[in-house]
Design goal:
Blueprint (H helix, E strand, L loop, with lengths): L18 H13 L3 H17 L4 H11 L2 H12 L4 H11 L2 H13 L4 H9 L3 H11 L8 H26 L12 H13 L3 H16 L7 H17 L18
Helix pairs in contact: 1-9, 2-4, 2-9, 2-10, 3-9, 4-5, 8-9, 8-10, 11-12
Length: about 260
Amino acid sequence: MSSTNNPAAPAAPDSTSAAAPEGFLAGLRDMAPLLLSVLPFGLVCGVDAMNSGLSLGQAEFFSLAVFAGASQLVTTQLIGHGAPLAMVVLAPLAVNLRFLMYSAGMAPHFGKLSLRRKLFYSFIMTDQSFALTQAALHNPARRIKLSAYYLGCSLGLFCAFQSGHLVGALAGARIPAAWGMDFAVPLAFTALLLPALRSRSHVLVGLIAAALALCLSGLPYLLGVFLSAAIAIAVGYFFFDEKQPPPGAKGEASDAD
């Protein structure tokens, strides 16, 4: 693991082995408030999997093997509506394309890890764990072991989501619609979005994306979501680029054990 002596560098990971438990627990603590929305999100995914016609064993194996809530919802809904196999496969892949960007942002910091750990870390990556790890990375006041922090965030969410999914799969359609569990999905992403709006340009791009998503919501196969995200990213890049250094610059340390 490389380290930096620059005290102003953002959240350089601690190289001591004693920092691993501390970083892991810090990740669990930071993730804990988000689990209030992750649990019902998993429950909704479990209910939807059962309603699509999957058996309990199939639903749980699917959730454990895929571990991608939004993609799971898309897939089970397509299965339930008898969509062609090609659409069932390609639609969740499109939903998860954002993880290419997430991985690119994490690569400078986890680039020296073993291939086995990279594969495992990529499997447990979520929107929430990426957002929290990036926030910790760019917080000058924190000195943590980044891989341990990320693991704490990711495994905490994994356990909460899978627990909620199991409860939802066992309960099935017996959960009353009046409970409004579907609200957990936008609530989880709103909790991630608001802290990320750190400048006026961020807010403007977010508003553009939201407006486009509403205008294009009538398009089939969730195309409105993808198009609005792509257009907003392009607008942000070409018109609101703040010329900030990429992750890994300014002597930020990489986490390699």
